[in-house]
Amino acid sequence: MQTEVHVFAFSVSANLLLSFFPFLIVMIWLTEHALRWHAATNAIYFALRVYFPQDMNTWLEWGDKKSAHNGLIGVLSHNRFQLVSVLLLLFTANGIFEPLEVGLNKVWSCQVNRSYVRNQLVSLGLIFACGILAMLSTMFTGLNTEFWAQPTSPFANFFITLAIKLAALPVGMFILFLVYWLLPNCKVRARDVVPAAIFVGFLIEAMMWVNLLIWNWTQDKMTREYGPFRYAVTLIFWSFFASMLVLAGAEWSARKARDRAERVDSIEAPHA
Q1: SS in 3 state form for the chain?
Q2: Which of 15-29, 67-81, 181-195, 229-243 has the least mean pLDDT?
Q3: Average pLDDT for residues 175-202, to the nearest whole number?
Q4: How far is 237 from 230, CA to CA, in rounded Å?
Q5: Among 88, 132, 147, 236, which residue has the least CB neighbours within 10 Å?
Q6: How many of the other CB atoms lie within 10 Å of CB of 32?
Q7: pLDDT at position 88, please?
Q8: Could you give the CA distance from residue 243 to residue 11 in angstroms, rounded to a whole number?
């Protein structure tokens, strides 16, 4: 509940909003034009329909009613390398890891933060690692999509939805593990952060289901307050809550590690 935690979370959520659309563009360009794997592209669109209600995923795919060129399908209608999207993705995704590192350093009582250049190098490594994991998850789902061909029956839709969930959940947990383990600028034992990565991964998945359950109610409120910016504001709010969960998981790991170290010291002290 400290003030700086909210600052870190809002900074992460703002950069996540900026990187969300470029990430989708790069992913779909790779599957559709570079790999020419239509099933994997369909898996990405299917995942958007799973995680976002109908009106938002339609907006993401096609854009608004006045223009068909500002959605994913409009942007990706040509076979050109998305250089701007790649550069934007690298810049904004690096912005996610900067406040996260500062927050995790505070949690683990690291003495100093990395220099800007070192932070960018570590962030770049995490970006590629997370991107590869996301691609593997997409490929796994794409194989299931190819197996079921056209998922028109309720059973096929259920199976592909389950495949997306089964592929995304462990990938998300492993990404959290990498962030918890590698991002702090001090030594963190891998086994200290594994429980938090698993637990927070489940909580974020549960949060996504809550989003679906209360979507109509929240969008009514957002439309009245924010009008055409409601989707961006929705992404920022949910990203903020997810960032708070990530930081809380790190705090939980650090507290358990400190408590264990204190118990070991108290046991060893009499013998010394």
Answers
A1: CCHHHHHHHHHHHHHHHHHHHHHHHHHHHHHHHHCCCHHHHHHHHHHHHHHCCHHHHHHHHHCCCCCCCCCHHHHCCCCCCCHHHHHHHHHHHHHHHHHHHHHHHHHCCCCCCCCHHHHHHHHHHHHHHHHHHHHHHHHHHHHHHHHHCCCCCHHHHHHHHHHHHHHHHHHHHHHHHHHHHHCCCCCCCHHHHHHHHHHHHHHHHHHHHHHHHCHHHHHHHHHHHHHHHHHHHHHHHHHHHHHHHHHHHHHHHHHHHHHHHHHHHHHHHHHC
A2: 67-81
A3: 94
A4: 10
A5: 132
A6: 17
A7: 74
A8: 9
Structure tokens at 157: 């839709």
Least confident of 49-63, 118-132, 136-150, 230-244: 136-150
Q: How many domains does the chain have?
A: 1
pLDDT of residue 242: 94
Domain that holds residue 28: 3-271
Among the residue ranges 18-22, 161-165, 232-236, the one predicted with the least confidence is 161-165
Task: Provide the b/e sequence for 225-253 (b: ≥16 CB within 10 Å).
Answer: eeeeebbeebbbebbbbbbbbbbbbbbbb
How is residue 171 written in tokens? 């990938």
3-state helix, strand, coil in the chain (%, to 5): 85, 0, 15
The region that residue 227 occupies, defined by phi over 0 for left and psi between -120 and 50 for alpha, beta otherwise, is left
- Residue at 8: amino acid letter: F
